[in-house]
């Protein structure tokens, strides 16, 4: 009889079993009971929140012949090359496939078990490669480390497919550090970040090598995906995430034809022109798309960029009614009709625009839309028509839409290139249910509106105020001595950026703070030489208030304190 305990409970029970023989005995006593728990544990075996060295232990479970002693048994006639599923058919439990994490795990296994790895590859070459025309072994056409690692990842995918699982979640997000070992660079040759996209800072030869490697990795997965019996595994896919360095064209071409039930699509791309057709087809074919994240790099000078972005977002008109969350980052929206789909987004709950250029006409499209369920709006580093920005803030019209203002709970406005003008006045008049509020202050005239917003937001729990560096010399920060006295009772988290620069203001603020703070973060506009005084006062104040500090991080530029 299958246990009725929740999977999370079973996982908790298993966490206390340290002895392998005890676990084995439990499995023998109640196979069904353990299968219930193992089903949960194996649903996402390649998740990236596990220490990667421990994570490599999964490979010999999926491919027992990776161990040299197993292959020696075969050579000596004491075993056969028949895949043994063990106590459970683990692959059939898998519903989440993170191909990029799988690649990293195989790479780490190669680094730590090179002798076993090489022995297994040598065995495959001698026994199968010479006489096989399988696409699996075509990957080994050169003798590079990368080819060997890709062969193992393909074998893992093949083993998984034989378990006939239903893959509901797919992520491919190869990072620069994943492939750097295959390039002719060292840590001293390149100062790139893990997810770098700056081709101008590295040699042309490295750019070519990098894309050759990425194409090989993508081709390996496409080779697996193209088989008809494999396509069926992804027919019920709900979540798709493709990272910036992934070459997506062939993958999207396949998935666009077989996936109809996606709820989440997350695409990060450098050149959307290259994937325009399959991405548009994928979006249009969805029956109930809820979450869309489009991230790019502002490269509007590239051929067909404006037309590509327009077509991608125009395709959302067919799925707009089911959309609940939209995040757009690093995109130039220059066609004035691009955002017309917002008028149909009646179920939209979260909208985020980040590092994006949006024409004033497209802001108007949002301001005229009926978004009755919108509860979170984040506009970060957004810019618009310069000639229009000098007169008014193009974002302001959104907050005059009464159909938006009633349900909004979280609001973040940090757009340094656009002056507030009367933006905060519109917010103070129309928003009464905010629990999170973040904004910039660009002039002294903004300050009274901050007080109005606080007075009209009794449910506010977190406040974040920023004076952008270009405005620090023209904004009078003396207002915080009055602001501390009007904080709503529910506030427990405060973030100040460039508002406090001396110990007297810091001390005054805490001494007069009557709310139950759990989090206080101060970023200073200049280096503070006496920052230790800030720390000591925070400790003294905490002790007087009976508050225990859980975490404290300080430097010359910032002070972060969290209380239990």
TrEMBL record:
InterPro entries, sorted: LRR_dom_sf (IPR032675)
- Family annotation (SUPFAM superfamilies): RNI-like (SSF52047)
Q: What is this protein called?
A: F-box domain-containing protein
């Amino acid at each position: 009889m299958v246990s009725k305990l929740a999977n999370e409970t079973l996982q908790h029970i298993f966490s206390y079993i340290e002895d392998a023989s005890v676990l084995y005995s439990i499995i023998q006593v109640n196979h069904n009971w353990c299968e219930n728990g193992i089903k949960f544990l194996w649903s996402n075996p390649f998740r990236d929140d596990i220490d990667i060295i421990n994570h490599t232990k999964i490979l010999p479970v999926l491919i027992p012949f990776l161990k040299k002693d197993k292959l020696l048994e075969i050579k000596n006639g004491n075993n056969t090359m028949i895949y043994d599923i063990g106590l459970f058919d683990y692959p059939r439990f898998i519903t989440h496939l993170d191909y990029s994490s799988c690649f990293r795990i195989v790479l780490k296994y190669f680094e730590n078990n090179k002798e076993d790895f090489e022995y297994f590859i040598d065995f495959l070459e001698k026994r199968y490669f010479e006489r096989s025309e399988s696409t699996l072994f075509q990957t080994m056409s050169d003798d590079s480390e990368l080819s060997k690692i890709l062969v193992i990842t393909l074998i893992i995918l093949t083993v998984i497919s034989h378990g006939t699982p239903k893959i509901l979640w797919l992520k491919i997000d190869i990072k620069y550090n994943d492939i750097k070992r295959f390039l002719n660079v060292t840590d001293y040759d390149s100062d790139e970040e893990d997810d770098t996209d700056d081709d101008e800072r590295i040699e042309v030869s490295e750019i070519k090598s990098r894309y050759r490697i990425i194409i090989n990795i993508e081709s390996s997965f496409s080779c697996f995906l193209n088989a008809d019996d494999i396509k069926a595994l992804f027919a019920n896919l709900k979540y798709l995430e493709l990272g910036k360095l992934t070459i997506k064209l062939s993958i999207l071409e396949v998935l666009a034809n077989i996936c109809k039930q996606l709820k989440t699509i997350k695409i990060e791309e450098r050149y959307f022109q290259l994937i325009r057709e399959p991405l548009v087809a994928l979006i249009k074919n969805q029956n109930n798309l809820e979450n869309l994240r489009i991230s790019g790099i502002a490269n509007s000078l590239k051929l067909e960029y404006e037309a590509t972005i327009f077509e991608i977002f125009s395709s959302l008109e067919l799925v707009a009614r089911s959309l609940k969350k939209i995040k757009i980052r690093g995109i130039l929206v220059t066609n004035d009709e691009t955002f017309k789909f917002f008028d149909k987004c009646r179920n939209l709950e979260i909208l985020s625009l980040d590092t994006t250029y949006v024409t004033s006409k497209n802001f108007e499209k949002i301001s005229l839309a009926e978004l009755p369920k919108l509860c979170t709006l984040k506009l970060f580093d957004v810019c618009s028509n310069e000639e229009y920005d000098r007169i008014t803030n193009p974002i302001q019209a959104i907050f005059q839409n009464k159909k938006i203002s009633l349900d909004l709970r979280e609001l973040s406005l940090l757009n340094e290139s656009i002056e507030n003008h009367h933006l905060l006045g519109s917010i103070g008049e129309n928003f009464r249910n905010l629990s999170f509020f973040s904004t910039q202050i660009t002039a002294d005239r903004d300050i009274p509106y901050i007080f109005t917003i606080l007075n009209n937001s009794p449910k506010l729990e977190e406040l974040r105020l920023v004076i952008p560096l270009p405005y620090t010399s023209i904004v009078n920060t003396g207002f915080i001595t009055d602001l501390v006295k009007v904080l709503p009772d529910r506030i427990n988290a405060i973030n100040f950026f460039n508002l406090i620069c001396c110990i007297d203001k810091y001390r005054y603020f805490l001494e007069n703070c009557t709310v139950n703070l759990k989090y206080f973060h101060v970023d200073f506009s200049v280096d503070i030489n006496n920052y230790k005084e800030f720390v000591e006062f925070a400790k003294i104040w905490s002790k007087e208030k009976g508050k225990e500090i859980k975490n404290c991080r300080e430097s010359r530029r910032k002070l972060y304190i969290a209380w239990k």
